[in-house]
Amino acid sequence: MTILNRINDYKKLEVARRKENTPLSKLKDTALYHQDRRSLRQSIRESEHFGIIAEFKRKSPSQDNINVAADPAAVTAGYQTAGAAGISCLTDTQFFGAQPTDIDIVRQTVSLPVIRKDFMVDSYQLHEAKAMGADAILLIAASLSAGQIDDFASEASALGLEVLCEVHNEEEVGKLSPNVDIVGVNNRNLKDFSVSIANSLQLAEMLPPSMLKISESGIEDPQSIVKLRSAGFKGFLIGTYFMREPDPGQACADFIRRVREIEDLYDGAIA
User: Fold this and answer.
1) What average pLDDT is seen over the chain?
2) CA pair distance 110, 159, nearest whole angstrom
3) What CATH number does the domain containing 58 carry?
4) How many structural domains are present in the chain?
5) Which residues form the Indole-3-glycerol phosphate synthase domain (predicted)?
6) What residues contact residue 77 under an 8 Å CB cut-off, 6+ apart?
7) Which domain holds residue 150?
8) Which tens digit of pLDDT belongs to each residue from 240-261?
9) What DSSP assignment string belongs to 55-108?
């Protein structure tokens, strides 16, 4: 059984318990459920700082503890100051160590679009995301059928949430729904956790031109951003690289600065 199978099996039980404790009608009564949403897609397109989606996460199955005691307010405020286009916030407690209040604190702290990053197995979670104040949700093609992706993406769109769908290979690209707003290529091999941006570069031409393309996981070298941008990627989701530093916000700012320096060198050489 893969880690993704284990997570999804656990998630189904977890969501069933939450549905019993908090009926859908109660979610719909929350103030955040009715607030206006911010567009992650637009924020990435208009970004002057390379469309960085900076992630807040405490741990992961591939890295174990990353920054378990991190302050979500301090980290994400730093990301916003650094020039991030959006914030990705893990809400899974069992495998990623999220605290139940993390996304609430993030939403109160930043004015950027926020992605609820979790493992979607039930449409109830879309309503949860809306009640949390999220602006976008993540769908993982590796764990969903094409029909599920289309159904979840369609319902999310009706709720005013944007959809980031994550793919790892050509087969998963074939599952994409027209209701997906952003397609993200994950550079991490889910079987052995190895990472390579070659995965994004290989899949770039297969991705639907109507969808904004982003690259995720294993991005630690500013030079990689330059290569990926030349292949048509507009955004880049980076988490562990920032979160393992003492000051993730400053790490984000330094990374953006280094990307700009490399691009300026290239522009100067061409001129």
Assistant:
1) 95
2) 22
3) 3.20.20.70
4) 1
5) 4-252
6) 109, 110, 249
7) 3-270
8) 999 999 999 999 999 999 999 9
9) EE-SEETTTEES-TT--HHHHHHHHHHHT-SEEEEE--STTT---TTHHHHHHH
